[in-house]
Structure formats: C-alpha cells, structure tokens
Specification:
Elements: E1 2-3, H1 5-17, H2 28-51, H3 56-78, H4 83-91, E2 110-114, E3 131-139, E4 156-165, E5 168-172, E6 178-181, E7 196-200, H5 210-218, E8 228-232
Antiparallel strand pairs: 1-4, 2-5, 3-4, 3-8, 5-6, 7-8
Amino acid sequence: MNNLSNAAAISKTQNHHHCLDCCRPIPPVVLYILALLFLTGLGVSIFILVVVHNALFFIIILFLSVFVAGFLLWNSLNFTRNAAVLFLLRSFPDSDLSLASHGQLVKITGLVSCGSVSLESSYERVAQCVYTSTLLYEFGEPGLKPSDVKNSCFNWRLAYAERFSTDFYITDSKSGIRALVKAGPDCKVNALSIERKLVKTTQNGRVLSSHLRKWLRDRNLPAEARVLRLEEG
C-alpha cells in the first residue's frame, strides 16, 4: 500500500497559499496585461471607426476579446477538475499491449481489478478499491465572519488528508492482455481523480452527525460543531 497523504497535504497547502489558485488559476499579471491590450485595441478601433468609418478592426477586436474571455472562463471553471490534463490524455489513442515494446509509454483503457491488497475508503467504507482519497477542509480564517463561507473559497484550509494507492491489474480492452500496474509502496503516483463532496456543515449546525463525529474522533480530530467540508474519491 502506497501512502500518498503527505503529498496530498503539501499539494493542497501550496495551492492554498500561492495566490489562492482554486479561485484564481490565471496569474493577476496576465489579467492586467490582457486588460491593457483590450483597452488599447478598443481605443484604436473606435478611433479608426470614427475617423475612417471602417468597422473591420473594431469587429476583430470584439471577436478576439470574446475568444480570450471564453478561454479564461473555461480555464477558471475547470481548473480544479484537471480538465485540461484530462482533455490532453483523452486525445491520445489507446495503446495495444500486444504490440508494445519494453519501456514504451502506453495508454491503457480497460477493466480494473484489485491485486493482492485492496483498499477501503475512509468515510463511506467502500471496499475493493485500488485508490482512495479523503480530504477534510475547515473554514475559519481569522477575522472572517461565518457568512463569508458562501461568498469565498479563499478560506478553506485542508485539515486532514488520507490518500492511498495499491498495485492493481488492468485488462487491455484492445488485446485482452491483463497487466499489473505498480502503484504500491515506493511508486510515484499522480492521481487525477476528482473527490466527491460528501459532507458540508454550516454555521447554523450545532451538532455534527454521529458518523462524522466518530470518524473525527478515530483520527484524533476535534469533534465539535464547526464549518467543515469532507470530500472523498
């Protein structure tokens, strides 16, 4: 079994401190440059439209602005879901293991089955897993009111992380060959799965559910009522 919990905590903490990437995946400098270019182009296009009575440049500026704005919006909405990486991976064709050579990088799509060791998810207790991830976030940065929870994603702090992977088998859908994938101890794993939100408490809740309290106590975490978000995948 490969313990990825420390890597998950470091990654999430870095994302929280580096310009709060969950809300601003585009660097502010880039936004300032794009805004300056847009205003400059808009001013020049309006000048040409008024003086020369040619609207072509103005239409081009509007078209480019809509295209760039759409790209920035898509990037912001899909940043936390690794949409760009998944899109790139899906663009590669599936490999045929019967034709693959030793050391070749392959992409395999097929049925996954557990190896000698299977995992169980931490909160929902789902068995026969090859990868599990449970993340607990707390809200409560100093100087902020509970009413800010709905309006800000800057203040969710990763309080606890459990991530494990293990060796598993995958059956190639093209050739039918069953291959062992090493994801256990001492293996480097880059997981792209997205955790599903299971629990989200509010400032109005006075008592946490019994199952959540037990889960927190089993991990030596405070079990008093507070604003929490638990995700698992």
